[in-house]
Amino acid sequence: MTKPKVLLHICCAPCALFPLKLLREDGYDVYGFWFNPNIHPFTEYKKRLDSVLQFSKEEGLQLIQAGGYPMEEFIRRTAYREEVRCPLCYNMRLEKTAAVAKKGDFDFFTSSLLYSKFQNHKEICRQGEAAAGKYKKKFLYRDFREGWAYGIEESKRRGYYRQQYCGCLYSEKERYRKEIEKEEI
Asked: How many CB atoms lie within 10 A of CB 111?
């Protein structure tokens, strides 16, 4: 009997640790997928990608990489729509994941975004289901947040790059906003 194939969209190595572990324990044949045009600047993108490549090698995880760094598309989609940037970003990444899942004949697709306590699970699920309908692939929703502590501890133990913001220019600004506002006073 063959294992069901699942394509795991990976936003970063620390967030992928627990989802990969759990999916494998549940009997899935897991492949990784790297597509994150929201990450800015490019040096941040490169740090995260390098960490994902290290993680994939250590775990024996086949990794599919979307070509290029289409940051401009992310900016075009979110400019003047900052209040809905997260749903737009989820949509962009999950649609691409679903398209690759269809092309690769995967049974399911999911995302390491579902590991984060800082992401909107309801919206990720909504966007995942929409992408599933569009590409006729099943979105596998799992609440990976139960492994939050495991992912943090294990990523530190392995020495993975641990970012301090989701990746987009807007979240970087929010990260430093309080410091900036203090300086302006």
From this structure: 29
User: In which order are the strands placed within the sheet that holds 108-111?
Assistant: 63-65, 29-34, 5-10, 108-111, 138-139
State how far the Cα of 96 lies from the Cα of 35, in Å rounded to an integer: 8
Q: How far is the CA of 81 from the CAs of 22, 57, 64, 72, 125, in angstroms?
A: 35, 38, 30, 15, 21
Report the predicted TM-score, pTM, of the whole model to 2 decimal places: 0.92
Domain map of the chain by residue range? 5-184
Which tokens hold the place of 100? 């690759």
Sort strands 138-139 and 108-111 into parallel, antiparallel or unpaired. parallel
**Which tens digits make up the pLDDT trace of 104-134?**
999 999 999 999 999 999 999 999 999 999 9
> What residues pair up with 138 in beta bridges, in sequence order?
108
Comparing CA positions, the residue from 110, 82, 91 lying closest to residue 6 is: 110
Nearest to 167 by CA among 53, 86, 68: 86
The bridge status of strand 108-111 relative to strand 63-65 is unpaired
Q: How many residues does the chain have?
A: 185
Place of tokens 């729509």: 81
Of the candidates 16, 52, 3, 12, the one whose C-alpha atom is nearest the C-alpha of residue 144 is 16
The DSSP code sequence of 83-97 is GGHHHHHHHHHHHHH
Structure tokens at 68: 């290029």
| Number of DSSP helices (H) and strands (E) in the chain, helices first | 7, 5
List the CATH code of the domain at 5-184.
3.40.50.620
